[in-house]
Amino acid sequence: MTASGTRQRHSTAGDELAGQKVVVIGGSSGIGIEAARLAHAVGADVVITGLDESRVQESVVEIGAERGAAFDATDFDQLAGFFAELPTPIDHVLLTGPGPAYPSWQDVEATRGELDAHLMLPLQVARDASPKMRAGGTLLFMSGTYGRRATTGSPVMSAITAELPALVRSLAVELAPLRVNVIAAGFVDTPLSARLLGDDLNARRKELSRTLPIRRVIVPEDVARLAVHLMINTAITGATVDIDGGQQLVNM
Fold first, then answer.
1. What predicted TM-score, i.e. pTM, was given to this entire model?
2. Where does the pLDDT of residue 9 fall: very low under 50, low under 70, confident under 90, or very high at 90 and above?
3. Which CATH class, in words, describes the domain spanning 21-250?
């Protein structure tokens, strides 16, 4: 199931991931690049992927990554080829994308696409990565909290939001001693959010800063810190960890 080898367990402040390899799929922008940056800062050798070749290469230079690769992770043949060619061992894999979409439940093709992107893609990453990972490493997937609310127009995303944690709990047992976890984020102020909201972005920022219990908007660095913590803390597996600034508490 996993490549042989024992990770170094001793570290000093600031090098908790020293000697470990972190792969960030979707690591050239937003949450992904911040997680890659922080992992590198605490000692990891980092590999990032993204869709855009120039952005990937710029990000490799910017954060000092070991290498980068540009491909569409939702093309499972390309994904399998990437992991097949990646030198072993791998310690942690973070899958950040693709972002959310809210297709009509009556649009069969769009629904299939969302299920592929948010359920089949994590499963495929687990298939491709786990044989090359060291014991105690982490598969870490991004999800959200919005789909937990029963609202008109979001049954597909609601189903995905419920199903990914169930998949991860089973994988945590199936792939042990690898660890498998989910980060469930609320609104995060990323370039993707800017594209989705357009002219409404500033209004959304102000609204959340006023109403969230933390009185500010979640930013990519917040999620990156949680991701790296879940890599470092070897006691956590099968968990869905929320990071939304209390958004669910105020029903927004």
1. 0.87
2. very low
3. alpha beta
